[in-house]
Amino acid sequence: MCNLYRLRMSAAEVAAQFGVDQPVQTNAGEDVYPGYPGLIVRAVDGTRAMQSMVWGFPLRLKSMSPTAKPKPVNNIADLSKGMWVGLARKPEWRCLIPLTGFAEAEGTKGSKTRTWFSIKDEPVFAWAGLWRDSAEWGPVYSGVMTDCNEAIRPVHDRMPVLLHRDEYATWLEGSFEELVGLQARSFPNDLIVTDRTAAPWVKRKASADQAVLL
Which residues, 6+ apart, have CB-to-CB distance to 159 below 8 Å? Predict the structure, then answer.
């Protein structure tokens, strides 16, 4: 799963990179965690718009107390399954998640550190996503996952569905079959930049142990 990513770029810079005419301000932090606000880009009436939403679809498990906070489903394992397929078939529920890097935990249990990944020569790039309105948290989004490529395999066996710039329109406007194809294809190994850090994986509450993958 991907439970942490960052966007170290202003709203105006993101808008320019993604062809958005009117940037919006957001209260999202540079480091984005499940259950917290992030920024997405979606198609609206033939143009692209930015919007701040909560990262993760709210899920209430049967075993949970009625008063317990829902868990954020922030990763999508298979577009053709469960609650995802209906959204994926409709372009109005698709989105691009701008990011400048995503992190995975690496190391032994209790002392895991953050390893960051980005794309070579891209100041910002897109993670394929879906969004919807929720009664609990308002608009929410989740990112689509796929099998890792060889560059990421030493750290994790899964990775986000990363999009090339010429694939943005396909994700937002293409057929369902094209979306499934993008989830199935492998992202080029030589475009992945790896940054192993000494920063501890767990820096605050409310991240990796609360996220859900469906």
Answer: 2, 117, 145, 146, 147, 148, 149, 152, 187
